[in-house]
Amino acid sequence: MLTRELLRFDIRRDRLQPRYVDVQDRSWQEVARSLSEACEAAQGSSREELQEAVIPILHGARSPLVAKGLFKLLTDRCRFQEGRDELEELRRTVFAVAARTFYPGAGQGSGSNDLQQYREAVGQALQQDADQLASRLYSDLPDRQILLSCEPMGAEALLQRYNLALAQGPLIWAKEVQLHMEEADVGVRRRFFRQLKFFRLLARVQRTAAASYRLQLDGPLSLFEGSARYGLLLASFLPVICLLSRWQLTAQIDLPARLESGPGGRKISGPVLLELDHGSGLHSHLRQTADLLPEELSRFATLFQEQAEGWSMRESSGLLELEKQDWVIPDWTFRHQSGQVVHLELFHRWHAQVLQRRLQSLEQGRRQLPPLALGVDRALSKQPEMAALLEQSVWFQQHGFVYHQIPPIKRVLGALQSFVSGAGVAGESVPMQVTISPLRA
Question: Is 23:180 a contact under the CB 8 Å cutoff?
Fold first, then answer.
């Protein structure tokens, strides 16, 4: 991702247009190649030394701003040595020894004002080389961190990644995103909707044709809390969208005040529209077969498979229809040894409006309802209005649970078992016939 000061775009007739670079431009390919080679050559050096090494490349580029953006994306792929607890202990020890060395009254120090003699005395007391000790002392500071490795990236791939980052940046300030997608490959559709859930985005899904869907994604600026985190998730989802065959995205962007735009330094503040589609020349760096399962959900899957006897689980591969044009994207699908299938939908802290709609559909649904268990994030459940809704919901009281970060296996099993026992809403059995969109091959 690019930081705010590294974004480049123009505003024309209330339309935001990222200022992409030509990935075939030889001069930009040379800049990208030089920066990549500098990062690879700097392994074992400090972050500060790396930054000094690329200064001539940045200043010599046709646009230093573009070069800085390329360098930012490269360093995002670098792994630096992080802070270590033993360095804090080392500093405490050095300071204690230094005090005794520098102040004769505190020990047997010489009181010398000679810096080198002082450093050697401290090193001798700790039985370490003075120069090596000095270099280690603050090696956990950002500028002193050692570059351990850097993932290689070709020049054209880096330029494509840069253009994608230019399109991602404004989505952090989106108020609403409309996405229309057409995808004939059922495997691609299945992975797309699964990733939509794993990114925890707020979406209303409408099916417009056999292989076409219209999605309304809430933007971070429509939320009351957690907007910064949600904005990053929404922007990070763009590479997943770019894997689709045909798509159109329109985003309403409320730019921050005094954000620069254009070569004239003109100041712009929203709202503006960002329009992207499959013909925008954006390339995803993700593999078509990649599944970006969050760490906490991966941990949940492992624990469930270890502890839940009589149940099997899989990532959900279909859409459930509650009411006409009211589609649910379950997080997981479970099968009991009896043959009963139960779906699970998780609601995170910024899912208040979606959860409210879901409870209303489940409580007032006029059609056969699917066996759908609900998991609600603890932070969301503590909101006064939501707490009252959950308490009043017969469906949630029978088939729901509250969780924090990782859903507790016992609570999940309790919600799943409520369908196996045949206890539906108000004591009625839950019908097994479920309308599922054919996302599976």
Answer: no
